[in-house]
Write a structure and sequence with these properties.
heterodimer, A: mainly alpha, MetI-like fold, 76% helix, globular, B: MetI-like fold, two-stranded antiparallel sheet, disordered N terminus
């Protein structure tokens, strides 16, 4: 593709003036020759970064607004935080979210570790099938997954609520838990296992003493990602919540629907901070010694 | 081609690296909670409506599918009703606009990122992914604050005297599309960046040496090279945008329903599960068709999507 492009542009060579001067000018620019000369690229990039972060900044900023009307600034206050943190319903929702998140994380990480190891030695057909299943929750529209699991639970008479949400969350946490683990596993030199086997270690010993410690950073990174994905999920939780299964995002949705006060922003800010801290931690762990 | 140390499956197993059956619990779990719900939705779409709304009556019918095109009056007569076709068309329209806007924003930033010094690149790419990891609900909600009549945009425009009356932005199709673009922008930037990063900038240099103008280089050299990333990005944005629920729900104000909102309504207030299931089947079929179309357009798209898409997020 590129060959042909350079060839055709060659026909315009006549425009060239003083090659030496041009070469010198270019050498100062370093990598990405010429492309830095698209000033619009830089401007658009800055705008895109602003676009990505300003909405979050506004959520945080207005959480300190003393006016009941969110977007009309009156003065600075912390009171929304104490109001939100002291609310019994919110505490219950937070507890539900954490409980679902922790259980979904533990189970999905165990399943994902098994999958990561199993995928290495699966036959081709099995591997394709497994990958399709793993990727499916990311491709199928979330609403379809939500009502599908709703139908499943209603049909099999599993009561809606915290446990139903947990069961569903595990399914879409698996791919997120799997990727860092798999990346870690692929970086392991197979020779270490051979060495262990040569020294007389059995399958289980190798798994416990070698595989697990080697995978540990990937497992922790995967667990953190799975936890955020569960914590932040709204749509699936909303459909499976039933009477007692209100999670934090489901509660926030109700607040947005009823009356938007800076309380929504305070709660949202806490969730944003949690998400960003956790993903940064996961990122640092995953990059470690990669 | 295999590297010499890349052993066959059998040899690896002998070396104590575990066995395929360790993946079995995961596969079984996903069959139960991903495959089974999809099968159930498919079955539901051919069943009758339950008397009291929740669930279905186990009686075969094609009504859920005919309901897509015809509405039944109380007297039993059928008449053509384009409501749902219109909503499907709208969904496509929003998803297309979203993809195109994301693409227009992503090419410059992807190229810009790819030309940063390597040490800063990683941090910048991470900065692009961070919003993805925050709650979708909160991200969507943030535009309620920004776009409402008293929000910062209207406040700013009033402040500098451009407008006297606030511009109604919230609860319009515009708000929905802005929310969708915001939600899916990282999915476009990352795969294009992944392609751009592999671009050999000496090719651009060569093109300049041969006298090509800046835009010629961009159009004839750079764009063809990052095409796999562009196609992957289009898939990764278009598909989830088409099935979006939150942006039209919160920002569209009921005026801009998309397919997902209609599905949700059938399992909620409208209490017509089979029809909701039929719409879900339709949405899934469209999703698969789009995937196939893009795969035909570029065989490399799926690989690039895997490498630069959600895998790049992690």
């Amino acid at each position: 593709m590129t060959n042909h492009s350079t060839k055709t542009t060659g026909s315009k060579k006549t425009t060239g003036s003083k090659p030496a001067a041009r070469r010198q000018r270019r050498s100062r620019r370093g990598v990405g020759l010429g492309l830095r000369d698209f000033p619009t690229f830089k401007a658009v990039s800055y705008l895109v970064f602003a676009f990505l972060y300003l909405p979050l900044v506004f959520v945080v900023a207005y959480s300190f607004n003393s006016n009941r009307v969110v977007s009309v600034w009156r003065g600075f206050t912390f009171s929304w935080y104490s109001e939100v943190l002291g609310n019994d319903d919110i505490q219950r929702a937070l507890f539900n979210s954490l409980r679902i998140g922790v259980v979904a994380t533990v189970v999905s990480v165990v399943l994902a570790t098994g999958l990561a190891i199993g995928l290495l030695t699966m036959a081709r057909a099995g591997r394709t099938f497994a990958w399709t299943l793993i990727g499916a929750p990311l491709i199928i529209p979330e609403i379809v997954f939500a009502i599908g699991t709703l139908a499943l639970f209603v049909q099999s008479r599993i009561p809606l609520g915290v446990n139903a949400i947990t069961l569903a969350h595990i399914a879409f946490c698996v791919p997120f838990a799997l990727l860092p683990i798999r990346a870690r596993l692929r970086g392991v030199d197979p020779a270490v296992y051979e060495a262990a086997a040569d020294l007389g270690a059995g399958e289980f010993t190798i798994f416990r003493r070698m595989t697990l410690p080697l995978l540990a950073p990937g497992i922790v990174a995967g667990a953190l990602l799975a936890f955020i994905i569960s914590l932040d999920d709204f749509i699936v939780s909303y459909f499976l919540a039933g009477p007692g299964g209100t999670t934090l995002p489901v509660y926030i949705f109700g607040m947005i629907r009823n009356a938007v006060t800076p309380g929504v922003n305070a709660l949202s800010t806490l969730m944003l901070v949690a998400s960003i801290l956790i993903v940064s931690l996961s990122y640092l762990l995953a990059r470690k010694r990669r | 081609m295999k590297a010499p140390w890349s052993a066959t499956a059998r040899q690896r197993r002998q070396a104590g690296q575990g066995s395929w059956w360790s993946g079995l619990p995961g596969v079984v779990y996903l069959i139960a909670l991903v495959l089974l719900p999809l099968i159930l939705i498919f079955i539901y779409s051919f069943l009758s409506r339950a008397k009291l709304g929740v669930g279905v009556k186990w009686q075969f019918t094609l009504t859920p599918y005919t309901e897509l095109l015809y509405s039944e009056s109380l007297s039993g007569g059928r008449s053509f009703d384009p409501t749902y076709l219109q909503i499907i068309a709208n969904s496509f329209w929003y998803a297309i606009i979203t993809s195109v806007v994301c693409l227009a924003l992503s090419i410059p930033i992807a190229m810009w990122l790819a030309t940063r010094p390597p040490e800063r690149r990683t941090a910048l790419v991470f900065a692009v992914t961070i919003p993805f990891w925050t709650s979708l609900l909160i991200r969507t909600y943030s535009f309620i604050i920004i776009l409402n009549d008293n929000g910062p945009i209207n406040g700013f425009l009033k402040g500098i005297g451009i407008i006297d009356e606030p511009i109604a932005m919230l609860y319009t199709p515009f708000a929905t599309v802005v929310g969708l673009v915001y939600t899916f922008l990282p999915f476009m930037i990352l795969p294009i960046y992944a392609s751009a990063e592999r671009f050999d900038f000496r090719l651009a240099e060569a093109a300049y040496d041969l006298g090509a103008a800046k835009w010629t280089v961009l159009r004839r050299v750079v764009l063809p090279s990052i095409r796999p990333g562009i196609i992957a990005g289009m898939v990764l944005v278009f598909i989830p945008a088409l099935g979006s629920y939150l942006a039209p729900e919160l920002l569209g104000g009921g005026k801009t329903s998309m397919i997902a909102n209609v599905i949700a309504a059938q399992f909620g207030a409208s209490r017509n599960w089979p029809f909701g299931a039929a719409l879900s089947v339709l949405l899934l079929v469209i999703t698969l068709l789009v995937l196939v179309v893009f795969a035909v357009v570029a065989k490399r798209a799926s690989r690039a999507a895997g490498r630069g898409g959600w895998e790049a997020l992690i």
